Structure formats: C-alpha cells, structure tokens
Amino acid sequence: MAELSTLARPYAKAAFEYADSANALAEWSTQLATAAAVAQADTIKKVLASPSLTSEQQAQIFIDVCGDALTVKAQNFIKVLAENKRLSLLAEIYALYEAFRANREKTVDVDIATAFELDADLQDQLAKALTSKLEREVRVQANIDKSLIGGVIIRAADVVIDASIRGRLAKLGEAMKA
C-alpha cells in the first residue's frame, strides 16, 4: 500500500497545486472522484491491462467513458497518467488529493460508530467538541455498529478515540493478563 501511495503522491500533489492556483479545488475533487470511479470499473481495468492498446488509445477510451465530466485540463492530466502507465493509481491519487484539500481547508471527516442512533443535538455537541480539540472544521458521519455494547468509537484521520464498552472491556482484559 505504501508503494502505491509513493507512486501516486506526485500526481496528486500536481493536481492539487494546479487546482489550488486555479481556485478550482471542488471542481477537481469532483473530476478526480469520477475518474477514480471509472478506473475501478472492471471493463476499464481490462482496457488498462491490454497490451495491444497504446497509452494514447487507453487515455482516449478513458476520457470517452468519463464524457463531459472532465475539463480539458483534467483530460490532459489523464493523458499524462496514461503515458506514464499510472491510470490504475487514480483511486489513490484521489484519496491523496482529498487529504491535501482537507489539510488546506482545515477540515476533517470524522466517523462516529455507536451502538445506537445519535440525535442531531448530540452530533452537534460532538462536532463542536472535536472542532476545538482537532482545531479543524469537522464533518461528522455517524454509523450504527451493532457489535458495540455501548459508547462510541471516533475516527478522525489517524486519531482513534475508543470510548466503547467493548474497548474498555478489552483494555481490562489486557490489564488482567499483565
């Protein structure tokens, strides 16, 4: 996985820097999301793996599938990726681009797993607390995890806060073994 990230990073950074200078971060985000989804399609994976097609042909097929979703600049980006045999990295490029964008916009996506549904007021309270703790604008995505007995597990980028009963019981079990 680290190797894919290493290969994708220069392309993601180039796309981000261009989009940032053109004040088109959201537009490029949408285009890269579309391109990443197309790159994950089984038929496109077969096209990209075909040794009988040139990189120009692969790029043109890819652009044709994307249709009007890509601007001329994004199409040129796809052509560069095709020339360098990197179209298969589009999902990783998109993920890195989104990380660069979130860092620039000082936002973070937070996933909250609970044993029960959170009401909107409690979600807002958690979002405010996390905003001050993480010093970023927080976008909350709440999920119900039936395997939790109670409590919550909060995931924000590389930060995990396990305040679940299951997590506490696991910690207690580890302490008793030590």
From TrEMBL:
Topology versus the membrane: Peripheral membrane protein
Keyword Membrane attributed: yes
GO MF terms, alphabetically ordered: proton-transporting ATP synthase activity, rotational mechanism
GO annotation, cellular component aspect: plasma membrane; proton-transporting ATP synthase complex
Keywords, in A-Z order: ATP synthesis, Cell membrane, CF(1), Hydrogen ion transport, Ion transport, Membrane, Transport
Compartment(s): Cell membrane; Membrane
InterPro entries referenced in this protein's UniProt entry, alphabetically: ATP_synth_OSCP/delta_N_sf (IPR026015), ATPase_OSCP/dsu (IPR000711)
Gene3D superfamilies hit by this protein: N-terminal domain of the delta subunit of the F1F0-ATP synthase (1.10.520.20)
Record's function text: F(1)F(0) ATP synthase produces ATP from ADP in the presence of a proton or sodium gradient. F-type ATPases consist of two structural domains, F(1) containing the extramembraneous catalytic core and F(0) containing the membrane proton channel, linked together by a central stalk and a peripheral stalk. During catalysis, ATP synthesis in the catalytic domain of F(1) is coupled via a rotary mechanism of the central stalk subunits to proton translocation. This protein is part of the stalk that links CF(0) to CF(1). It either transmits conformational changes from CF(0) to CF(1) or is implicated in proton conduction.
Family, as annotated: Belongs to the ATPase delta chain family.
Protein name: ATP synthase subunit delta
Source species of the chain: Dasania phycosphaerae
UniProt gene name: atpH
